[in-house]
Write a structure and sequence with these properties.
- The chain has helices at residues 5-18, 33-44, 56-60, 107-125, 142-148, 195-199, 217-220, 229-232, 244-247, 267-270, 274-277, 282-289, 299-313, 319-328, 332-345, 348-360, 364-389, and strands spanning 23-28, 71-78, 97-98, 131-134, 153-154, 160-161, 169-176, 205-207, 210-211, 238-240.
- The chain is α+β, with helices and mostly antiparallel strands.
- It has 2 domains: 5-86 and 100-176, no CATH class; 195-253 and 264-385, Leucine-rich Repeat Variant (Alpha Horseshoe), CATH 1.25.10.
- The strands form 4 sheets. The chain has a 4-stranded antiparallel β-sheet, with helices on both faces.
- The radius of gyration is 24 Å and the shape is elongated.
- The model has no long low-confidence stretch (mean pLDDT 95).
Length: 390
């Protein structure tokens, strides 16, 4: 039996329902010419994160991945935006937070399983079909594909926004050499709303739909080196990712879908206590956080961000632990960040440790942070003296 294109589409739509896929759409595999021009301009301006596929032709031409490509099948899975009864920070027991896109099981795995299910159904109908699955780490732009396939539209915050689930969706796609009638792109947009641009704390949303990834706090939380001083105070207690541009979006208001069981958050994982993170071994980190999307860069960025969060909270109970890191941790980024946090927290014990480190530390980057910590202490003392005089 030879399946006709419309029948194949109907069967895949039904398969998507059976697989608990929230949205499915179909797009042509023609090159994304407009996207190509935007990406070239993006590169010229230095706005790339470095996590993307470097070859812009691969990012914009599906046939660079599958030469006989005719159709791209796009899917979306909704994820939660709220926790019931989340744990709260309290003195001596402060907590960090993972962004919502890292709640539950790593979405790459979940999406791939769903797409494998669709691939299986397609091969049952067209055994000779060629298929290529992509989830986030693939060459193509998930958002551009989803927009062309009618899943939603790309908002001014650069997120893909759906009518039903707002931007709280994960995206994946499958390229195939089977022709399937395409869907119509969504024409709805953000109108004159600029709440996301106005709320971005670093100005990373430089224009509607244009993101300077280098200035985005979601990106900064994933870097492995020293966090630039300009971002340290505003990053707060964020361990991975940053949700502000989605939280302020009117299309996300009062939206919270919990029907995808894999994405339901474990509160103790997504809002973990900060201090225990700093003494966690690699094995312990993998056991506890290894199934989360936010673990993909390893534990060092998470630990660095946890130290920054302790400085943000000015957690005096963490001073002995931070001193231990400053004196003993083999990683310069951790020693230096601990020095900065000690300067933010202040107190005689922190000051003594920083002065001692000034005499014993050899790494120039760490010494710079030690000096910064001592300067923060002096500024805090001067401010305290001025308040006393007032």
């Amino acid at each position: 039996m030879k399946w006709q294109p419309e029948a194949i589409k109907r069967e895949l739509i039904q398969a998507a329902k059976d697989l608990n896929i929230d949205k499915i759409g179909f797009a042509s595999a023609d090159p994304f010419e407009e996207l190509r021009e935007r990406l070239l301009r993006h590169r010229e301006l230095g706005y790339e994160s470095g996590f993307e596929e470097l070859d812009i032709e691969k990012r914009t031409d599906p046939r660079k991945t599958l030469p006989e490509a005719k159709t791209i099948i796009a899917i979306a899975l909704a994820y939660p935006s709220k926790m019931s009864d989340p744990p709260r920070s309290e003195p001596g027991k402060y907590r960090g937070v993972f962004c919502r896109a890292s709640w539950g099981e790593d979405y790459h795995r979940v999406l791939r399983r769903r797409l494998e299910g669709l691939k299986k159904r397609l091969l049952e109908m067209v055994p000779e079909a060629a298929c290529e699955i992509m989830v986030d780490t693939g060459a193509l732009s998930d958002r551009a594909v989803a927009e062309r396939a009618g899943i939603g539209w790309i908002g001014k915050n650069t997120a893909l926004i759906t009518e039903e689930f707002g931007s709280w969706v994960y995206l994946g796609e499958m390229i195939t050499d089977v022709y399937i009638p395409p869907d119509t792109p969504v024409t709805e947009g953000c109108g004159d709303c600029t709440l996301c641009i106005d709320a971005c704390p670093t100005g990373a949303l430089v224009a509607p739909g244009q993101l300077n990834a280098q200035a985005c706090l979601a990106y900064q939380t994933q870097t492995k080196g020293f966090l630039s001083p300009e971002y340290r105070d505003i990053i707060g207690n964020h361990l991975y990712g940053f949700d502000t541009c989605q939280l302020v979006c009117p299309k996300n208001r009062k939206i919270n879908f919990t029907h995808q069981e894999e994405f339901r958050p474990d509160p103790e994982k997504v809002k973990p206590l900060l201090q225990p993170l700093l003494t966690m071994s690699n094995r312990e980190f993998r056991k506890r956080f290894g199934n989360m999307a936010g673990s993909w860069r390893g534990k060092k960025p998470i630990q660095r961000n946890a130290i920054l969060a302790l400085g943000h909270f000015r957690d005096h109970t963490s001073v002995p632990l931070l001193i231990q890191l400053l004196q003993e941790d083999p990683r310069p980024v951790i020693r230096g960040t601990a020095a900065w946090a000690l300067g933010k927290i202040g107190g005689p014990e922190a000051e003594d440790a920083l002065r001692q480190a000034r005499d014993t530390e050899n790494d120039p980057d760490v010494l710079r942070e030690v000096d910064e910590g001592l300067m923060l202490l002096k500024e805090d003392q001067r401010s305290h003296n001025r308040r006393g005089l007032g």
